[in-house]
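Comment thread on ticket #2218

A.B. wrote:
> Attaching the input chain for the structure job we discussed in standup.
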Amino acid sequence: MHADQPRRRMAQNYLLVWVDFNFDEKDKDCQNTLMHLRHVVNDINICTQPDACVEFLNSIGDEKAFVITSGSLGQHLVADIHDIPQANAIYIFCSNKSRHEAWTKKWSKIQGVHTNINEICEALTVDVKQYDQDSIPMSFVTVRGDTSNTNLDELEPSFMYTQLLKNVLIEIKHK
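C.D. wrote:
> Ran it. Output below, let me know if you need it in another format.
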């Protein structure tokens, strides 16, 4: 397994696992693919064996992983990783899309079969943004009837609000 550390740091609580028997750091295509992926994710982990991928996913605690695998390797690997909670989404990267589309339909975490890295980066960008939005903790304050006993300064610490919202809520309280 190889962990790639990019120059640019992004705050995130997920990573990417690329599973490929034929990964070669010196290969220009692999370097180009990594360059494209770095525009979307911060941590890229390379596994050249399926067992290393399973072991890695089971070792990352609460982090979530997006997994890219080839079609032929994926046919066996997906069954091993689909139920691992850390595996958030799986992308199939292959040269023959029609060959792999049928078997991928039965796995809900598979986000598509892609024939080029640009397609994967586009799908990954959408899924990462959705994951980020889903991960934002939210709290709500409701105003019902008499709010004279409500102290807006005693909200739980995870509730984030702007000064403008606080002022609006205070005005509502005094009406």
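A.B. wrote:
> Thanks. Noting for the ticket: The chain has six helices and six strands.
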